[in-house]
User: Which sequence fits this backbone?
């Protein structure tokens, strides 16, 4: 547990690098582990959604701490395979921005979801994020490395959300629930802004 803050700080350092221009399909060289890693952390929409998954898992606690992020990653991989294989999927960008809006709203409500429902919800949105990543995955020998990169980046961003949620519990005590609700509301507002093309 003592190593988690260092892991989170490392992931946040990568997240602040100026790579937003490379976060979506058809931009830049997309081969290799580094490019795969930078794809999720290079776009505000992906970063917010991944952190929201971790924050939601932290608020639910118990088995949700690992089951909710695992559900997202699993379905994201399936979506990534579909995207890399050339299978089309409608409303991918809407699904990505909608994930921030919906997950942020759920966190802002502050109500406990059954773990299974939370897993299904994040898994559904994971498909859209995975498809976006997969359409960037090259079909050469470096494709696996690219996939490993975006899976690791996603896991680190989930860890950042978990650390924020669990850290708030330790530092803020009774105020942590309110802080999480405020964070969820901000995420929902950002999701609405991304959907409207403001960000």
Assistant:
């Amino acid at each position: 547990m003592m190593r988690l803050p260092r892991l989170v700080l490392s992931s946040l350092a990568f997240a602040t690098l100026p790579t937003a221009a490379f976060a979506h399909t058809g931009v830049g060289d997309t081969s290799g582990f580094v490019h795969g890693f930078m794809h999720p952390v290079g776009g505000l929409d992906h970063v917010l959604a991944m952190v929201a998954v971790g924050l939601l898992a932290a608020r639910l606690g118990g088995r949700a701490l690992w089951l909710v992020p695992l559900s997202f990653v699993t379905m994201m991989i399936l979506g990534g395979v579909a995207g890399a294989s050339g299978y089309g999927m409608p409303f991918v960008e809407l699904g990505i921005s909608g994930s921030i809006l919906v997950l942020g709203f759920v966190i802002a409500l502050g109500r406990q979801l059954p773990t299974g429902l939370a897993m299904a919800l994040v898994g559904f949105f994971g498909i859209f994020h995975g498809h976006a990543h997969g359409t960037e995955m090259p079909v050469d020998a470096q494709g696996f490395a690219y996939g490993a990169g975006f899976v690791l980046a996603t896991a680190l961003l989930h860890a950042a959300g978990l650390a924020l949620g669990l850290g708030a519990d330790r530092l803020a005590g009774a105020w942590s629930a309110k802080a999480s609700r405020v964070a969820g509301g901000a995420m929902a507002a950002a999701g609405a802004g991304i959907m409207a093309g403001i960000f």
Notes: Confidence is low (pLDDT under 50) at residues 1-30. The two ends are 35 Å apart (CA to CA). The helical segments are 4-15, 33-41, 44-60, 64-84, 92-109, 115-134, 143-172, 176-195.
